[in-house]
Design goal:
By secondary structure, the protein is α+β, with helices and mostly antiparallel strands. Helices cover 24% and strands 43% of the residues. The protein has a single domain (12-155), classed as Nuclear Transport Factor 2, Chain: A.
Length: 168
Amino acid sequence: MNEAGVLAETTIADIILWHDLHRLQERYVSVIDTDRLEEWPELFTEDGVYEIVPKENADRGLPMGLMHCFGRPMLRDRVVALRKANVFAPHTYRHMTSGLEFSQIDIQTIDMQSNYVVVQTLSDGESRLFQAGRYLDRVVRTASGWRYQRKRAVYDTSRVQTLLVTPV
């Protein structure tokens, strides 16, 4: 949509850009859902920020959240802690995403948002809705393709039912 709220004509360039952004998001959820977490930090810029924040706090402009990682080294530390230090029940995630929208800030920078649902399956085979919310992202074009400069998961769920160790 343009600034007047009128549906603008979609160009081939818009479709290609949407496809590229969708592929980045699909790779993001794939590395989590298939437990290839060592690849997760590489989807961010060197100074990339990752946050998980409750909707209630986000709506009030409060920064307090469940997880804040600043920079690729901190993201890597998060994965190492998950692999070696944290004690938690074995589980898998399955993400569903929808409603990807974006606005181009400049030729190298995009703000995008989408909805997500995460289903968690524990080692006993029981699956349950773990979290629902939306991603608020800023992505930038790098020599390696689009990367997250900021990924903010704002969750609607009123409480997190188990220890949050794996990124959403």
